[in-house]
Amino acid sequence: MFLKSQLSWNISIPPEELHLDELKLKKSIYVRLLAEFAEKKATEELGYFIAVTTVDKVGDGIVRHSGEVVFPVDFSCITFKVFTGEVLRGVVHKIYKHGIFLRCGPLENVFISNEKMPGYCYVPGENPIFMRDTSKIEKDAEVRFVVIEQTFQEDTKEFRAVGGLEGDFLGPM
């Protein structure tokens, strides 16, 4: 789910990037904010950082002993976080005997076990698939699934999710 968040971060500007011209200084602050936003990638509370939408306020700078100036910046952004019970769509990128892996937006690791795909049977081969009556799940297919569980890996700043196809209107699209 996409969320709109209000955040306040302290942005440090090194002495060589300080400018007397207000526009150049704001540009340095915005560029540094966007770089830190991209570098941070995700947090467990907010999910993946997608985009800064507005910069609401840049406060007065505070000079540090190192010569850097720290500016408090209030801004709005869009994040993407997965919630248990949420129905999402993903694209199949790996198929194994024991299940499939999907990508869903910035979420690279969604696993759906074959046990959570009622009625589907694994068909091995050069391009393995899962079949059920008249529907099939193959590589690059778009699949609607429900999130059963999600976890956040602090070291890689990535979420992992387990999904299922148990429910109405779930499966290949």
UniProtKB/TrEMBL annotation:
The keyword Lipid biosynthesis does not apply. Keywords: DNA-directed RNA polymerase, Nucleus, Transcription. It is found in: Nucleus. Residues 8-65 form the RNA polymerase Rpb7-like N-terminal domain. The keyword Nucleus applies. Gene3D superfamilies: Nucleic acid-binding proteins, RNA polymerase Rpb7-like, N-terminal domain. It comes from the Eukaryota. GO terms for cellular component: nuclear DNA-directed RNA polymerase complex. One of its GO terms (biological process) is DNA-templated transcription initiation. Belongs to the eukaryotic RPB7/RPC8 RNA polymerase subunit family. DNA-dependent RNA polymerase which catalyzes the transcription of DNA into RNA using the four ribonucleoside triphosphates as substrates. This is DNA-directed RNA polymerase subunit.
